[in-house]
Amino acid sequence: xxxxxxxxxxxxxxxxxxxxxxxxxxxxxxxxxxxxxxxxxxxxxxxxxxxxxxxxxxxxxxxxxxxxxxxxxxxxxxxxxxxxxxxxxxxxxxxxxxxxxxxxxxxxxxxxxxxxxxxxxxxxxxxxxxxxxxxxxxxxxxxxxxxxxxxxxxxxxxxxxxxxxxxxxxxxxxxxxxxxxxxxxxxxxxxxxxxxxxxxxxxxxxxxxxxxxxxxxxxxxxxxxxxxxxxxxxxxxxxxxxxxxxxxxxxxxxxxxxxxxxxxxxxxxxxxxxxxxxxxxxxxxxxxxxxxxxxxxxxxxxxxxxxxxxxxxxxxxxxxxxxxxxxxxxxxxxxxxxxxxxxxxxxxxxxxxxxxxxxxxxxxxxxxxxxxxxxxxxxxxxxxxxxxxxxxxxxxx
Amino acid sequence: xxxxxxxxxxxxxxxxxxxxxxxxxxxxxxxxxxxxxxxxxxxxxxxxxxxxxxxxxxxxxxxxxxxxxxxxxxxxxxxxxxxxxxxxxxxxxxxxxxxxxxxxxxxxxxxxxxxxxxxxxxxxxxxxxxxxxxxxxxxxxxxxxxxxxxxxxxxxxxxxxxxxxxxxxxxxxxxxxxxxxxxxxxxxxxxxxxxxxxxxxxxxxxxxxxxxxxxxxxxxxxxxxxxxxxxxxxxxxxxxxxxxxxxxxxxxxxxxxxxxxxxxxxxxxxxxxxxxxxxxxxxxxxxxxxxxxxxxxxxxxxxxxxxxxxxxxxxxxxxxxxxxxxxxxxxxxxxxxxxxxxxxxxxxxxxxxxxxxxxxxxxxxxxxxxxxxxxxxxxxxxxxxxxxxxxxxxxxx
Lengths: 397, 397
Hints:
- 2 copies of one chain form a homodimer.
- In chain A, 32% of the residues lie in helices and 27% in strands.
- By secondary structure, chain A is of the alpha+beta class.
- In chain A, the strands form 2 sheets. In chain A, strands 1, 2, 3, 4, 5, 6, 7 and 8 form an 8-stranded mixed beta sheet that branches.
């Protein structure tokens, strides 16, 4: 028997994940999140000028009380012709009838190949099975159904420390990523559920803040896919005192939200296409937080740094060059770099045991620490190495 | 016997290229360009905050009358400790003595690995041979000596149509590139020579304008290596009427300058590390030229577009997604994309023969045309596909 993990960690959420035939070999490709109570929803969306019809529908409905999120993988529902807006609405209409909820209370997410007609008939004819399979034990099936080139499911759950009527307020989540994430355009989807009683603006703000330090540190703002979205549903089942922006519990809630988003973001980063190693770049001593973010993201996203790490080559020159290519304020004469905990540069190259560092670079988790020596701001970014496998995956369908 | 090509195409320039032992296996790694007359020099340099000591020396001397440019490959002379500034000056001092010219009339360029002490003794002990080998028939040897992971020499020459005392004013050039160029940080070096009589500001301006439409269309401004430089020497041997910014010949000169820079830039793009295919992205119908450039560079630099082309996969969705990820003004309902001359998208997906397009995608040169349908500005960017080979090259030294 499966236990309550991920998006079913909070009470009041039933989910399912099945195969409807979009993907080959009966791989799961359709997921449903159903909230037994009307939920408040918060969402963040791609800045790409081309947007998936599913995403447009979600943006249209998100301020309504929400009962369900339908997610398909294998088809992006983007740039595939205007008739697909009709198909999207047909699907939602049908799902509304089955769940006995208004179509305007349903959100939708899609991920997969751009420009292909949405196989709406396959989806519609599977909705009945999808609804029948709803259960609070199916979170792993749902997490599997949203995968594309991901090699593993991504789930997380966290307690907030906020007292509810009978038990603590909690948050659960699932995500999909893959692609090289940054600097490119793999779709990043994340869905979060919570039993908190929270106002819409407090939920949205906590999501905005959390995303800044988590998903945005693995993907560049201006370079998002046509389908990226992060959605959180709050169904209020915990019966806690309503969380507002100015209530003390807001801090606890947004703190937990940040932690769960960072956990999902790191899972996405370490599962980049073809990735063999997870990379964490920690920047401190920055003039401002923007500088810190900029440098951390630049270094973690550099193809040259990523491929050096793939090869276990302690080429700190590429890290330095990458830092210098930003316009962040730096103290050139004192800037410090540590690779796997070993100081390699401090204004000048340092002597280090290349043998020792090469051994550390064979590990699965690689840490790069940079001290810009110009201020007190910090930021951390996450990514993965660049391997031949990445290119193989992206050469063809 | 070698003929006068590349940087020896204009009269009055002697060059040589030899091995001094920085690279293994006696590969050429040291080049010298010597002008028999004092030259006016123009230069454009990297915006990277970390700069090579060779580049700093060049920036210091460039406004002086210039007699020589020394270039080494195999060592970037960057972030390798402050004593290397001394070594750089020692080398220039010694070269000045041999050539009987002031050290302040010498420029220097370096390319190779960052953070290694410059083997100045090897360089200094080879200067004598380098000077002895000076000839106007050695341009290919010089072009070879500046290569790193380049697989072929890059040379170009052009006539300007401007009358000199006895013959036409001409321009010659050589370059090195490799790396994936954009979005990363392979060093791009280009050296141009001309026999034109031209003022320093006219030379500099023509270089600035040419670079904008050539080298800058293969590499992103904010993401340059620590060593990038383009230098042009004008020795006045042609004896033409001096070219100023406001004389009619300026247009002819800068037009030729743009053409030769585009030729070198395209050679660099098609020889990216591991590249099997050359990609040209032509954008028209842009609101302004900045929008056109932004879109062209974004598409040509997208790892997903580049790897799809490597695999011969007509995934136009990745092109569209890449366009949408910029903030360029576009007409979403009319935007047009042609791949290898075949229309694949026009506001909606178009029907096309996948078989035919896949056949065209096996060619060595791939053309992507984009019409944003928002204005009259145009731009063209160049790049190459992304292959497994690229990753292999960059995994280790």
